[in-house]
Amino acid sequence: MAEQHSTPESFFKQEVAYYEQQFAQVQKSIRQVASLRISVFLITVLGIYLTAGHSLTAVLTVAVAGFSLFGFFAFRHVSLFRKRKWTKKLLQINENELRLLRLNTSHQPENLEFMDAGHPFANDLDIFGKRSLFQLLDRSATYIGREQLAFSLLYPLKQKEQLKERQEAIAELSGMPRWRQAFQALGNMEENDKNSATGLLDWAKNTETVFNKPVYKILLIIIPLLGFTLAALNIFGVLPFLPFLIFCCCHCLCWGRI
To answer: How many structural domains compose the chain?
Structure first.
């Protein structure tokens, strides 16, 4: 079903205002959840300290409840960061549309790599380069998409049926601006154009992620064991509470940075 809107400019301005408001709300929620996460962690540590002298059951109850709540807020924090990135992409898309309506193509790539010096009309019609037709039309989210658009401009359709099918597709999509923008934003979520053919293959072959490095694999085993050991030694009175508190604080700070 086609979305009802007035002029393109009024629609894009309305969307910019909406996503600016959404972005501000997400930023506020991120700060609130971060504060709650830190508060829950500190209250949990304090609860473990206060119940350590009573019973193991009380300590485990406080620890499980507190760290479960901490995990919930951590997951919520990650979700809000994704939402912030998504909202920012949609905001940028609508801001770019307003620029293009004013024939401002300074934010668009020139894509001179698609220029063919021997092409019969590409140079004369300014298809590529600054303030070009390609810049005005390009909404692609991947390098493959830009290649396809460039090919369509350099070698336009000539068959009547193919032209008719394309016109029908354009007519249908023209009434779905929010769907188009969501599709474009989804493709733009990766900053480094990992969706291009070469980039995607190189990225998929790259196993040098943070937690695949040997040192991190060792730390992923040692850190939990160290934490449980300090907690057990504190519960049984072998060590004071301070070493466990320092360990928890350091672990929380490092985890938050990752």
So the answer is: 3
| Mean pLDDT of the 94-104 span | 93
E strands of 65-191, at which residues?
Answer: none
Distance between CA atoms of residues 99 and 35, nearest Å:
38
* 83 and 116 housed in the same domain: no
Whether 14 and 75 share a structural domain? yes
Q: In this structure, what are the phi and psi dihedrals at residue 82, rounded to the nearest 5 degrees?
A: -65, -40
pTM: 0.70
Cα dihedral 97→101→103→107 (10° resolution): -10
CA dist., res. 10 & res. 210, Å (int): 45
From 104, 128, 146, give the residue that closes a domain: 104
Write out the residue range of the structural domain in which residue 165 sits: 112-205
What's the token pair of residue 137?
């039309």
Same domain? For 235 and 158 the reply is no
Amino acid at 75: F
* Cα of 203 vs its chain's centroid, Å: 17
Residues in contact with 121: Cβ distance below 8 Å, sequence separation at least 6, in sequence order: 127
pLDDT tens for each residue of 34-69: 999 888 888 888 887 788 777 777 777 887 888 888
pLDDT tens for 127-176 read: 888 888 899 999 888 888 888 899 998 898 889 999 999 999 989 988 89
Give the separation between CA 20 and CA 256, rounded to whole angstroms. 26
Contacts of 15 (CB under 8 A, 6+ apart): 90, 94, 181
